[in-house]
Amino acid sequence: MNAPIDRASSDLAAYMTAVGRRARAASAALAKASTAAKNAALRAIAAAIRARRGEIVEANARDVARASMSGLESALLDRLKLTDDYIEQMAAGLEQVAALPDPIGEITDVRPQPSGIRVGRMRVPLGVVAIVYESRPNVTIDAAGLTLKSGNAAILRGGSEAIECNRLLAALIADGVAAAGLPRDAVQLVDTTDRAAVGLLATMTEYVDILVPRGGRGLIERLMREARVPMIKHLDGVCHVYIDGDADLDKAVAIADNAKTQRYGVCNAMETLLAARSIAPRVLPRLGRIYADKGVELRVCPETKAILQAAGIACKDATDEDWRTEYLAPILAVATVPGVDEAIAHINAFGSKHTDAIVTENYTTAMRFLREVDSASVMVNASTRFADGFEYGLGAEIGISNDKLHARGPVGLEGLTSQKYVVFGNGEVRR
Predict the structure, then answer these.
(1) pLDDT, tens digit, for every residue of 260-295?
(2) In degrees, to the nearest 5, what angle opens at C-alpha 382 toward C-alphas 378 and 387?
(3) 86, 100, 152, 297: most buried, per Cβ within 10 A?
(4) How many domains does the chain have?
(5) Which pLDDT score, from 0 to 100, does residue 394 have?
(6) 429 belongs to a structural domain
(7) What gap in Å lies between CA 153 and CA 23, rounded to an integer?
(8) Nearest one of 259, 261, 258, 305 to 281, comparing CA atoms
(9) Tell me, what's the pLDDT at 161?
(10) Can you list the alpha helix ranges (DSSP code H) found in 276-376?
(11) End-to-end alpha-carbon separation of the chain, Å?
């Protein structure tokens, strides 16, 4: 890991250029690294995480204490905290990535052509991937694991609130990579809290191939304005659960409860609940009582308000803005709709194309929802909280994309690769 710097003692632009050059050099070595070497690095890092769990907890506790004193908002503070379960998931995620097939070098779709040549496609790394993120020290490990296995070099720029934990994790990563015979510069942490480093990183087209921002709206909007490097991103997580008229009530209650209250400050938490008119009087009071017990504020349409008030459940009138807001807090917008047509229209109008779910026992309705909801992840009878690389079997995720080009949804190994055409001939010449 590089020594800490600040703008008073070193030139930031020169520092960032040096980081970029080292990453570009490392990417060449990683592109030809063996699967065995990459897997050995991942397993070594996982072992180090478990062996030094106590140090990680202590570093994280110092970060959390400092961030709390500085007034970091509750959603970001929640993302910053590492529990024993999260630390174990970091290690397990690396092992899961190691167990996955190596995509690099895979040749597919080889087809003979009338000329006699055979044309196929080979999967290759993107090169250098830069990840900019806030809080979430687990992203340091997830990003390292996925970029290493996919043959990419990584430049990581975490938030200042997680700097101590990130420095420790970066050191563990460098040791694991070196033990496997790969370049230590395969994963570099930008070791400065100067926000200007982010602006420089986003314009380093000579050294950075893809930029992945993971953070709040302010960070991503800034990068959308400033970046010259292509991005894989999502801006908001305005996720919906629609309870259809043919839903199983017990499933609906369990899913809508979990989607909202299992964890508030994450991008795959439900922010708007929609219920079909035919089932709303039976399901909304049950859910309203659960939300009330958990301190969730409900912002509702007039029809929902009448149902909840008749059941003695407090609620507030929703504004137009509530339907498009990512709260990341114990606040939920709720609307009663005539049926699936209106639910789909509402989601496509107000959602952020992240993750949306339907609860129904009607196969035809479920298939319509899957086809017509224009989101990166669309679910049937499952909580939106499953929209996650680990839960999808990707080992981890480097981010979630709601763009429509290259990668969409949780971005795992395949999302960090591209393809090139390969041609096999036997002396053919074009005439």
Answers:
(1) 999 998 899 999 999 999 999 999 999 999 999 999
(2) 55
(3) 152
(4) 2
(5) 80
(6) no
(7) 6
(8) 305
(9) 94
(10) 280-293, 302-310, 340-350, 363-372
(11) 56
Name the stretches of the chain with pLDDT < 50. Answer: 1, 3, 5-9
Query: Does residue 363 form part of some domain?
Result: yes
- pLDDT for position 393: 82
Q: What does the pLDDT read at residue 330?
A: 97
Residue 142 lies in domain: 12-232+411-423
Specify the residue for token string 């397990």.
92
In 3D, which of 295, 45, 302 has the Cα closest to residue 179? 45
The predicted-structure confidence for 291-323, as pLDDT tens digits, reads as follows 999 999 999 999 999 999 999 999 999 999 999
User: Is the domain of 291 the same as that of 317?
Assistant: yes
Integer angstrom CA distances of residue 284 from 149, 280, 281, 304, 330: 46, 5, 6, 8, 17
CATH number of residue 92's parent domain: 3.40.605.10
- 167 by DSSP, 3-state: which? helix
Domain at 333, CATH number: 3.40.309.10
Question: Is residue 371 a contact partner of residue 340, using CB atoms and an 8 Å limit?
Answer: no
For 2, list phi and psi in degrees, rounded to 5: -75, 155
